Amino acid sequence: MSFKLTILGTSSALPTTKRYTSAHVLNVHERFFLVDCGEATQVQLRRNKIRFSKLDYIFISHLHGDHFYGIFGLISTFALLGRTKPLHLFAHPKLENIINTVLGSEVPPFKIEYHALEYDKENKILDLKHLEVYSFPLKHRTQTCGFLFKEKEKLPNIKKEKILEYNLSITEIIAIKNGSGLTLESGELIKNEQLVIPPKRPRSYAYLSDTKYSDKYAPLLQQVDLLYHEATFDASKSKMAKKTGHSTAEDAANFAQLTNAKKLLMGHLSARYNDVKLHEKEAQKIFKNATFVNDNDTFTIKN
Amino acid sequence: MSFKLTILGTSSALPTTKRYTSAHVLNVHERFFLVDCGEATQVQLRRNKIRFSKLDYIFISHLHGDHFYGIFGLISTFALLGRTKPLHLFAHPKLENIINTVLGSEVPPFKIEYHALEYDKENKILDLKHLEVYSFPLKHRTQTCGFLFKEKEKLPNIKKEKILEYNLSITEIIAIKNGSGLTLESGELIKNEQLVIPPKRPRSYAYLSDTKYSDKYAPLLQQVDLLYHEATFDASKSKMAKKTGHSTAEDAANFAQLTNAKKLLMGHLSARYNDVKLHEKEAQKIFKNATFVNDNDTFTIKN
Fold it and tell me: pLDDT under 50 in chain B at which residues?
């Protein structure tokens, strides 16, 4: 079962010929979840061969242009391709009026289900069969949310040979999957852990852009597999980072350490930098498994 | 003095990884004039090393997304780069409200001067020192204008040796530049054409996208150097072209012939085509100097 992140854009406000503005797409079991939608996201989706028909959920962190100006073209393209099924859009409540104004009389042939984000606390905003999505407030110049995508805990599988050995009934199987042991006719108790294979570890990905450093939601994000944290600036620009509601590479690394993340992905590079060597050096001093991402990078978490 | 057209996007409604949506930029004497602004136009401008600071005039043919969804990002980028001088935007009057809604509280630090296009007749919409711009209605599904960019006729230059030979005064020079001959003290008349070098031929470029075939404005566009005419479809799709308010390659070629254009540039390719061989073959049977343009093509007209 796939759990693969594709980075579509890694620039901060100004796109360049090498870095588009913010957008990520997460493939969870071949369903696609788009996080932010900077200008030309639809072209980047095509470039990465993401099938539009498998994209039903879009999450917009905040209403700065570099995070949502691609939504109009993407919706138009969905319409031109004849989409009929609903599109779920999790965003600031103002986005609905903005989209309606831009599209004007070009009303799409599918329903856009708007889900208004809240900015005061963490919320579970989506609950699917295999996946949960949480939003949580970030500290930026405008109302902004981060997102946590987390596979659901699975029940353990029963060892096949035990089913045969003890001729288990459906009722017994359900009880054992939910943690019971098994009492034989002889009165002997077989412990649960002897009967089951532990479930595969749930995988997770968190997206934090744009934000100042804040430890507030570190508990929610403990041991996240892929922690994306913006790192617009290097350490020498920490005052500017604070002033503009952004982070340095050190901020991102400190947050990765605090959450015991498996891997830190940095992004949202200020256009003033020609490369990311300094960002990576500064981050890796604090948190070793840190990398600055490039457009079209992919990260697969196996289980 | 430069007169150079750069093609930024050549796709119709759906952008692909090879063709962005519609945008052209015309360099007239190192001032840049942007015509349409599909998504990611700002990235294409960067790719072609067009200096944003020399771009003061934008012309939007109509309010279908593939012709204007890049305007929001471009305005935001101008703002981030600290632009203070006004930006002139020639477009449908509805665009002002759309832009204000999308930008929200992110009001740019420069004035956007909106110039509403009219859709009932041709109009001179801009009159600069060296250049005139005309709009004229096209036949599409929504109110749409084409644009004609035309260098102004220059006065002839006086041959240097004649200034010395006849010791011409400023008053005489002005009169000769405006067509007078010269009467010497002897009573001899020197004809104007013996005194002057004819001015360089004014160069011109016309943009027609999106439109059905129409001969109505052919007189305005006579002998245009660069005629851009959309050619969304090949001849086999002529019914669909008419139905959707678009043209075939043959339509574009017929219009080029009617206007005695120097060169026909076709664009706005439907995403159904993998290449443009058929379009070029069909057009060239009617009008030989026809080409289907690609993103980042440039065309320079010398004088």
Answer: none
ipTM score of complex: 0.93
Residues from chain B that touch A69, judged by Cβ atoms under 8 A, are 69, 72-73, 76, 102
- Residue B213 to residue A298: CA distance in whole angstroms: 46
Residue A79 touches chain B, beta carbons under 8 Å: no
A102/B101 CB distance under 8 A: yes
Assess contact for B206 and B226: CB atoms under 8 A. Answer: yes
Place of tokens 């012309």: B59
CB B296 within 8 Å of CB B48: yes
Residue B287 has a pLDDT of: 98
Give CA–CA dist A180/A195, Å, rounded.
Answer: 10
| Number of neighbouring beta carbons within 10 Å of residue B218 | 17
- Interchain CB contact of A16 with B (< 8 Å): yes
pLDDT (0 to 100) of residue A1: 85
Domains and CATH numbers, chain B: 3-154+200-296 (3.60.15.10), 157-197 (no CATH)
pLDDT in tens, A226-278: 999 999 999 999 999 999 999 999 999 999 999 999 999 999 999 999 999 99
- pTM comes to 0.94
